[in-house]
Amino acid sequence: MMFDDELKDLDNKHLRRRLKTVSSPIDPVITLENQSVIQFASNNYLGLANHPTIKKAAIEAIQQYGVGSGASRLISGTQTPHLDLESALATFKGTEAALTFGTGYSTNIGIISALVGPQDRILADRLCHASLIDGCRVSQASLRVFHHNDTKHLTQLLSKKSEHQKTLILTEGVFSMDGDIAPLPELVRLASEFSATLLVDDAHGTGVMGANGRGTIEHSGIDPHALIQIGTFSKALGTIGGYVVGSSSLIDYLLNTCRSFIYTTAPPPSMAAAAQAAITMVQSAPNRRERLWKNRDHLFKGLKAMGLQLAQTQSPILPIILNDPQQALAMSTKLLEHGIYVPAIRPPTVPKNTSRLRMTITSEHTHEHIETALHAIEAVKKGLEQTSIHFESKKVVDHSDPQG
Ligand SMILES: *Cc1c(COP(=O)(O)O)cnc(C)c1O
Fold first, then answer.
1. Helix/strand/coil for 360
2. Tens digits of per-residue pLDDT, 343-353?
3. How much distance in Å is there from the Cα of 127 to the middle of ligand 1?
4. How remote is the CA of residue 142 from the centroid of ligand 1, in Å?
5. Domain-ending residue, one of 267, 284, 301
6. What is the pLDDT of residues 215-255, one digit of tens each?
7. Do 107 and 235 reside in the same domain of the chain?
């Protein structure tokens, strides 16, 4: 196999990816490749990834339950922290029950293929995360993609005669690379009108959206039992693990059929205890969410004032659209020279011609962090414009393949 040729090809297209070493906790200031930088790259929106209370919960669980779970959940891997987490999560999300997984990725692979099969169809928003698309592929259901957040297009697809048995509508609460929000009330209405099931991945909404941080479903004022909700503990909740919440019968069905739940070792009890402590924290510390939104507005206004082209974001994800992957990389590299880390996001993570700098902000960034970043962006933008790169480029709308 010609791996070197393939890698060279990626290099030529400015699409090669490389790992960068972080030798510090994931705080607003990290040590990246031995350089101290202010980062706008993590999904640790509430700063919980290095929070003392949550670390303490993990350490205590290690002392009480050990480091490994020893088996899959259905054999002997269900320890008390797993059940406590699921019950806390169901209460938090306002559903009858919850089921947890090792990661959000494995949740999505398993859930979609447990809900639908080759005789069914999936209608997915075209900006759905790669893990959702992979879940669709594993399920072997027929997959149609609707234009991003376009309920008219979805209605057209739903109205078409179809030989399929079940229909699953798939979307995200807050979109991970654009930061905008799905039109959930209308999607719930369409699912009900066309007897379809609505599955919402609220990875980036949980902890962030809604008066109590319960997520985009709370933000949109929807009954949590009108849909099936999946998500992850790895973003605002600062830890790791995926989940699904819904009715008791749904959860019991998944426990019996979902292969990525059944055929894998249970996550360490310490991670379950940490995730539960994070849920408690989200509920008991609304001031973190207030700081997050204040910081988000500060950064958003500063970027807008520079005339940068931002995606239609409604969340702490602030993507600066640069279209060309080379531009995105150049800007990211230059910012790093100023001590600011913002990752360049390129295809296939985002559609072609929509490469971007994806800035994320947390509750723990200070006013000075944000001001420093804005000054650096301004300087880098000026410097690059004098070479050849222009920032107020036209938005390219590309309705080709879904990502992945
Ligand atoms: C991050 C993410 C996932 C994957 O979750 P992990 O816990 O990181 O595996 C799934 N869906 C969306 C929308 C995400 O942003």
1. strand
2. 999 999 999 99
3. 13
4. 23
5. 284
6. 999 999 999 999 999 999 999 999 999 999 999 999 999 99
7. yes
315 lines ligand 1 (CB under 6 A): no
Give the per-residue pLDDT at 205. Answer: 98
**DSSP per residue, 137-204:** HHHT-EEEEEPTT-HHHHHHHHHS----S-EEEEEESB-TTT--B--HHHHHHHHHHTT-EEEEE-TT
The residue out of 266, 284, 302 marking a domain boundary is 284
Number of structural domains (the chain) is: 2
Percent of the chain with pLDDT over 90: 90
CA separation for the pair 264, 72 (Å, rounded)? 5
Q: Count, in order, helices (H) and strands (E) of the chain.
A: 14, 13
Rounded distance from Cα 105 to ligand 1 centre (Å): 6
| 310 within some domain | yes
Cβ neighbours of residue 26 closer than 8 Å, sequence gap 6 or more: 39, 42, 44, 49, 50
Query: CA–CA separation, 319 vs 317, rounded Å?
Result: 6
Q: Interior CA angle at 242 toward 289 and 48, to 5°?
A: 30
Q: What is the CATH number of the domain that holds 273?
A: 3.40.640.10
Q: For residue 16, is it within any domain?
A: no
pTM over 0.90: yes
The response to whether residue 135 sits with its C-beta less than 6 Å from ligand 1 reads no
Contacts of 141-146 spanning 24+ positions with Cβ under 8 A: 141/112, 141/116, 141/117, 141/168, 145/402
275 with 297, same domain: the answer is no
- Three-class SS state of 34: coil
Ligand 1 contact via 106 beta carbon (within 6 Å): no
Check whether residue 267 and residue 141 sit in a common domain.
yes
Residue 398 lies in a domain: no
Strands (E), 165-314: 167-172, 197-201, 228-232, 242-246
Instruction: Return d(Cα 162, Cα 116) in angstroms, integer.
Output: 15
Same domain, 147 and 198: yes
